[in-house]
Design goal:
The chain has about 350 residues and is α+β, with helices and mostly antiparallel strands. It has helices at about 10-15, 60-65, 80-85, 150-160, 195-200, 245-250, 265-275, 340-345; strands at about 20-25, 30-35, 40-45, 50-55, 70-75, 100, 110, 115-125, 130-140, 175, 210-215, 215-225, 225-230, 235-240, 255-260, 285-290, 290-295, 300-310, 315-325, 350, 355. The protein folds into two domains: about 20-200, Pnp Oxidase, Chain A; about 210-355, Electron Transport, Fmn-binding Protein, Chain A (Pnp Oxidase, Chain A, Roll), CATH 2.30.110.10. The chain is built from eight helices and 21 strands. The N and C termini lie far apart (about 45 Å).
């Protein structure tokens, strides 16, 4: 949540994606910044990596670049015990040892969280109003085995905090003494994929279908490895393993991308994509133009073009400028990664890795 959320028409359509609420925190020995957000996604495994869009109007952006680290907690409904005070301007709640512990990197972590992970900063890209950061998982742990991640969608449905005139956004860092907080449990560093997914695998996140077209080659993947990353202009970021054919397409001039938010009617389509078939013959798809496909049951679509690539280890991230965003289905819920876990694979990323010639 940031000051421009309700002024971005693309975000209001992107709101239909299921997005588990998260908390981003960063701290040194004297000060701290925390803010809630959902523009974060896994962007690699072996080793585990995360990408996040941080509003540059928040002190967190500068602190993350300066300190080279950040911490992400998977929020639960019980987090509202302290968030009500925090978003009314009471930052002292973050130092309450009955409500928070500190991560190995010293950042505050709510005790009510499902779990948390500390990240080392690998890459930071200035996108104007946001900072796109990529981090490698270092430490972390599940804090509540039975805890359930609360979604931003359910929060907004009850009372949209973005429209609450009494909400005090956390622009500035505030005084913080990490020694007041007990140390959080922590698994080994660096985290194994299993330990990482024990935390982030419990985050609710909706799937999208991404169709990429360049030089008469078409590529299709189903993934949760994507987020909105800026308002001005509206942009999204998609991640893939660098060995995939889509990464070659993303670097070609004029590469176009059509992103569809999948609905709960698209489970069969996910299985078809898993088989790696030519998208020109798959059922459940619509060719919006030759070589660019969306799901027939998509909740919303975003048409754009690749403006830049970010390579981090064996992962490539494409930044896509959104040219057109549309609502396409009046009823239906965004299909979540855990609902098709067997087909979508670990972390919710299904990429056959091959491209296909677009029929003449």
């Amino acid at each position: 949540m940031d000051s421009q959320s309700l002024r971005d028409p693309v975000e209001l359509i992107y709101d239909q994606r299921i997005r588990g609420a998260l908390l981003i925190s960063v701290a040194d020995q004297e000060s701290c910044h925390i803010h809630g957000g959902c523009w974060l996604a896994i962007c690699g495994l072996r080793p585990a990596r995360l990408m996040a869009a941080i509003p540059k109007e928040f002190a967190a952006a500068e602190m993350i670049e300066r300190l080279g680290r950040f911490t992400v907690s998977v929020s639960s409904e019980q987090d509202f015990v302290w968030q009500g005070r925090f978003y009314r301007g009471d930052t002292s709640v973050v130092g309450d040892p009955a409500l928070f512990v500190r991560s190995p990197d010293g950042a505050p972590v709510p005790l009510a969280s499902v779990g948390y992970v500390d990240f080392t900063l690998l890459n930071a890209r200035d996108l104007g109003d946001f900072l796109l950061v990529v981090g490698a998982a270092r430490h972390g742990a599940v804090l509540n085995e039975t805890g359930q991640n609360i979604t931003v969608n359910s929060i907004v449905a009850k009372s949209d905090p973005r429209a609450d005139t009494e909400t005090v956004l956390p622009y500035d860092a505030f005084p913080y003494d990490p020694e007041r907080l007990a140390p959080a449990p922590a698994d080994t560093s660096p985290l194994t994929d299993q330990d990482f997914l024990a935390v982030f695998g419990r985050r609710h996140f909706g799937l999208y279908l991404a169709s990429t077209l360049a030089d008469d080659q078409s590529h299709l993947m189903v993934s949760a490895w994507g987020i909105q990353v800026s308002h001005r202009p509206a942009r999204m970021a998609l991640a893939a393993r660098r060995e995939s054919a889509v990464c070659d397409l993303w670097q070609k001039p004029g590469a176009s991308v059509l992103i569809s938010l999948l609905s709960d009617q698209d489970e069969a389509l996910v299985s078809e994509v898993a088989d790696g078939g030519d998208p020109a013959v798959l059922t459940g798809l619509i060719a919006r133009q030759p070589g660019l496909y969306s799901s027939q049951s998509a909740i919303a679509t975003f048409l754009g073009h690749v403006t830049e690539r970010v390579d981090v280890g064996d992962t490539t991230i494409a930044v896509v400028s959104v040219d057109l965003a549309e609502d396409t289905l009046d009823q239906g819920a965004n299909l979540m990664a855990e609902e098709v876990a067997e087909a979508a694979g670990p972390g919710g990323h299904l990429d056959p890795g091959t491209s296909h010639q677009v029929p003449a």
